[in-house]
Design brief:
The structure holds two protein chains of two kinds.
Chain A (H helix, E strand, L loop, with lengths): L9 H9 L12 E8 L4 E10 L2 E10 L2 H13 L5 H5 L4 H7 L6 H16 L10
Antiparallel strand pairs in A: 1-2, 2-3
Chain B lengths: L4 E2 L10 H8 L17 H20 L7 E4 L2 H15 L6 E5 L4 H12 L3 E5 L9 H7 L4 E7 L11 H10 L3 E5 L18 E5 L10 E5 L27 H36 L5 E3 L10 E6 L4 H7 L3 E2 L1 E2 L12 H5 L4 H5 L1 E5 L6 H21 L7
Parallel strand pairs in B: 1-11, 3-4, 3-5, 5-6, 6-7
Antiparallel strand pairs in B: 2-8, 7-8, 9-10, 10-13, 12-13
Helix pairs in contact in B: 1-7, 2-7, 3-4, 5-6, 7-11
Classes of the chains: A alpha+beta, B alpha/beta.
């Protein structure tokens, strides 16, 4: 019906249709959370992941923001499954910008996403311990 | 058109088939297409007669005489002619203009032009209900005030200003009074004599007429001086040069005639739809009505939803043609200045929705919108993170 809206690419429309990955994980061993952004600024996200064998076994999101931001959060949950802590520390928002054809005016919102991903790395179980 | 429920009648309306038919009569080789200024021949005189009939039809809706109507390309031009034309002409009397912060950009941008030309403009802040009352205007008047401009119906929130009270105040103080009536004329009673309105901006396309035509109703007795914006053939008594678009003018006349004939009945029906819409939506948690609850135009409903991003809400409602105060949904980079002027936060302004009803809106449209908005808000709130502890 409005699939021709040029503001939203195919991946955004696909993600918005289901918002796959939305929700929470029950608290428990290996469950880690990170929050970033501010509703007043137009974008806020809460990520909840479950770490098993030093990798993200599951990741869920809750988000407030525009369709690009919600779709990027949904996309992220699929991309980061299986990632280790080092991958989260090095994750860069540009990957989401490319995958979802996010317009430059909204790049700032993706930085919120990056903050949350790196927050997960900081809160990683045993993050204070040496990984060497 | 694609299968979209159209609830954006404050932006523009579908042309009534009766209007389109009248316009077509002025377009073809056998129609009244001649230049209405070419009265030396019969086709020109026929076109002129149609233009004058339309002039009378528009004038009649606002209590004016036909000779008070000056055709323009729309309300934006009419507003510009009123503000720039009147201020420039009356500059020797003073350089102060009063308006409100919630006027249409056609007025606000014209005021900014006046400021560049050395005028001083006072922008009144409306109350939280969107109204600007006469005492507030009175307090802003100065000995050098030459013009007050106040819209009849606000295009975003639909509140109706008491232009009669402000008009009488201005008349008593010998200050010119301009009203942008783009949203209200033909839908609510308006009378330039009773309401002491010196300049009234009108448009056709908000009233199921064509885009590209409007009018400025100008007080004639005593004559009100205006400096024209356009120079050329001296049409419209020298106030608006350019060949008249007969078919557009005829369309506007027909739109106003039809609206006048059905104003009471149609306004009541549309107000009933608006109330049904509000009754359905107000049950949603965190829903706020923007603007005065009673002094409202029949067809406009503006609502803010707490904890909902406006762009995502519009995305979810893509089966509906509606407007939002969301920055990303418009060409404007800022949240709605009208809602901000009413004291709404940026977040509430962005999470706002304007649904506007018209002649072809139905109960089915309204009920579908209520269901869709409810579902969209529930979905977006369900996915939002819980509020952080303060």
């Amino acid at each position: 019906m409005t699939g021709d809206d040029p503001r939203y690419g195919a991946e955004v429309r696909r993600r918005m249709a289901t918002l796959a990955g939305a929700g929470d994980l029950p608290p428990g061993p290996g469950v880690v959370t990170a929050r970033a952004g501010d509703r007043e600024q137009g974008a806020e996200i809460l990520l909840t992941g479950r770490v098993e064998s030093r990798r993200l076994a599951d990741l869920r999101f809750r988000a407030y923001g525009c369709p690009h931001f919600l779709a990027a959060a949904s996309w992220l949950t699929g991309q980061l499954r299986g990632a280790d802590r080092a991958a989260l520390e090095g994750w860069d928002w540009r990957a989401a910008a490319d995958a979802l054809e996010v317009p430059p005016a909204k790049f700032g919102r993706l930085l919120t996403l990056q903050d949350a991903v790196r927050g997960l790395a900081r809160n990683w179980p045993g993050a204070g311990e040496s990984t060497v | 058109m694609e299968d979209v429920v159209y609830l954006d009648n404050a932006a523009t309306t579908a042309v009534d088939p009766r209007v389109a038919e009248a316009m077509l009569e002025c377009l073809g080789a056998h129609g009244d297409y001649a230049n209405p200024s070419a009265t030396s021949h019969a086709p020109g005189r026929r076109a002129r007669a149609r233009v004058e009939q339309a002039r009378a039809e528009v004038a009649g809706v606002v209590g004016a005489r036909p000779e008070q109507i000056v055709w323009t390309s729309g309300a934006t031009e009419a507003d510009n002619l009123a503000l720039l034309g009147a201020a420039r002409y009356h500059r020797p009397r003073g350089r102060h203009v009063v308006t409100s912060r919630t006027e249409h950009p056609a007025v606000l941008d014209a005021c900014r032009q006046l400021e560049r030309e050395g005028f001083e403009v006072t922008y009144l802040k409306p109350a939280e209900d969107g109204l600007v009352e006469a005492p507030q205007v009175e307090a802003a008047l100065r000995p050098d005030t030459i013009l007050v401009s106040l819209m009849h119906v606000n295009n975003e929130i639909g509140v109706v200003q008491d232009v009669g009270a402000v008009g009488r105040l201005c008349r008593d103080r010998a200050v010119l009074f301009h009203v942008d009536a783009a949203q209200g004329a033909g839908k609510l009673p308006l009378d330039v004599e009773r309401d002491c309105i010196d300049l009234l901006a009108l448009t056709a396309h908000k009233l199921h007429g064509p885009k590209g035509v409007g009018a400025l109703c100008v007080r004639r007795e005593p004559r009100l001086g205006l400096v024209p914006l356009l120079h050329g053939g001296g049409q419209e008594r020298g106030l608006r040069s350019g060949t008249l678009a007969t078919h557009q003018v005829v369309g506007m006349g027909a739109a106003f005639r039809i609206a006048a004939a059905s104003m009471a009945e149609e306004s009541a029906r549309i107000a009933g739809l608006r109330d049904r819409l509000w009754e359905g939506l107000r049950r949603l948690p965190g829903t706020l009505l923007n603007g005065h609850p009673m002094r409202r135009a029949p067809g406009i409903l503006s609502i803010s939803f707490d904890d909902v991003d406006g762009e995502s809400l519009l995305y979810e409602l893509r089966g509906f043609a509606v407007s939002s105060g969301s920055a990303c949904a418009t060409t404007n980079a800022e949240p709605s200045y009208v809602l901000r002027a009413l004291g709404r936060s940026d977040r509430l302004a962005q999470g706002s929705l304007r649904l506007s009803l018209g002649r072809y809106s139905t109960v089915g449209d309204v009920d579908a919108a209520v269901a869709a908005v409810g579902a969209a808000i529930a979905r977006l709130r369900a996915v939002a993170p819980p509020r952080s502890p303060a």
